[in-house]
Write a structure and sequence with these properties.
Layout lengths: L1 E7 L7 E7 L4 H5 L3 H8 E2 L7 E7 L4 E6 L6 E2 L15 E7 L4 E5 L2 E5 L4 E4 L6 E5 L8 E7 L7 E3 L5 E5 L8 E7 L10 E7 L5 E2 L4 E2 L3 E8 L7 E7 L2 E7 L3 E5 L6 E4 L4 E8 L8 E2 L7
Parallel strand pairs: 2-4
Antiparallel strand pairs: 1-2, 3-22, 4-5, 5-12, 6-11, 7-10, 7-12, 8-9, 8-11, 10-13, 14-15, 15-16, 16-24, 17-23, 18-25, 19-22, 19-24, 20-21, 20-23
Pathway: Glycan metabolism; pectin degradation; 2-dehydro-3-deoxy-D-gluconate from pectin: step 4/5
Organism: Spirosoma radiotolerans
GO biological process, one term: D-galacturonate catabolic process
Length: 294
């Protein structure tokens, strides 16, 4: 069920690129998966390797999830053969959130400095993209999401102060959290990509409860700021046929449009959500009562 992974070594000015494809899976297939099969199909376990672009393509909405940690100098975004494009963003848009040390992204010659938890949207048609860390001992970790795009929107940096911020939940229900909408249509225009970051308060562990699905969009969750020795249990599957995957720090998980996407940690944590599909309506959610989950 998992598509073949490939790797390539490019010219001396570009790093090795690892590219993996994941086939779409139906609810009926997922019902029969064991733990290893669930992890093989939905978990992205390694995103940051020094000087190496790592990409996972999901056939759900052709969503690309990636990471790059530049250490030995500037790294130029190459174009994997699987995209069949003249350049990476010929028919795509790109969202970036820095989850490491200070860094810089240069898009067609324009520099954008990104500190921890700052975001950058790069529009379709941008041809030359470079990633730079300012300190090799504390390198930037650029978390990347990319979706197909039909037109160009302007490249724009989104600092923490630019986010559309919503505070939800409570300590009593262990889900007191702050949602930072970063690359969403209430902040800037995009074709279909949306990204944001949810930070759980100390003492809270649950995210995305009550759980929901949305047939119009798929998602990818990236968990980070998970303390050493702690873990997050990510819940997926149809509301009445749920499954779970235990995840560690700086791992991501693919969520099909028919699946819930929720989690509970052994500590508080932060996660980045990315979405793609046929609308940009953040409130498009088909909720399931907590007591109806099975």
């Amino acid at each position: 069920m998992q598509a073949q992974s490939t790797s390539q070594t490019d010219s001396q000015t570009e790093p090795r690129t690892v590219f993996e494809s994941r086939y779409a899976s139906s609810p009926n297939e997922v019902k029969g998966m064991d733990t290893a099969q669930l992890r093989q199909n939905f978990l992205i376990d390694t995103l940051f390797v020094a000087n190496q672009f790592r990409w996972t393509l999901s056939f759900f909405d052709r969503y690309l999830t990636g990471g790059i940690m530049p250490v030995d100098g500037p790294l130029t975004l190459d174009t994997p053969d699987q995209l069949k494009a003249n350049y990476f963003l010929e028919r795509r848009e790109l969202g970036i959130i820095n989850v490491g040390g200070a860094g810089r992204v240069v898009a067609d010659g324009a520099p954008y400095d990104l500190n921890y938890k700052e975001a950058l949207y790069i529009g379709q048609g941008t041809q030359d993209i470079q990633f730079i860390s300012y300190d090799a001992d504390a390198p930037a970790k650029f978390y990347l999401n990319s979706t197909p795009a039909h037109r160009n929107y302007p490249t724009r940096k989104i600092a923490r102060a630019d986010a559309d911020v919503v505070e939800l939940g409570s300590m009593e229900t262990a889900n007191h959290r702050v949602i930072n909408k970063l690359l969403v249509n209430s902040v800037l225009p995009t074709c279909q990509l949306q990204m944001g970051m949810t930070e759980l308060k100390a003492g809270s562990v649950w995210n995305t409860m009550p759980a929901h699905t949305h047939d119009r969009r798929m998602e990818v969750y990236f968990y980070f700021e998970v303390p050493e020795g702690q873990s997050v249990c990510h819940f997926m599957g149809q509301p009445q046929e749920t499954r779970h995957i235990f995840m560690q720090n700086e791992q991501a998980v693919i969520s099909p449009n028919w699946s819930i996407h929720a989690g509970a940690g052994t500590s508080n944590y932060t996660f980045i959500w990315g979405m793609a599909g046929e609308n940009l309506d953040y409130s498009d959610m088909d909720f399931c009562a907590i007591t109806a989950l099975k």
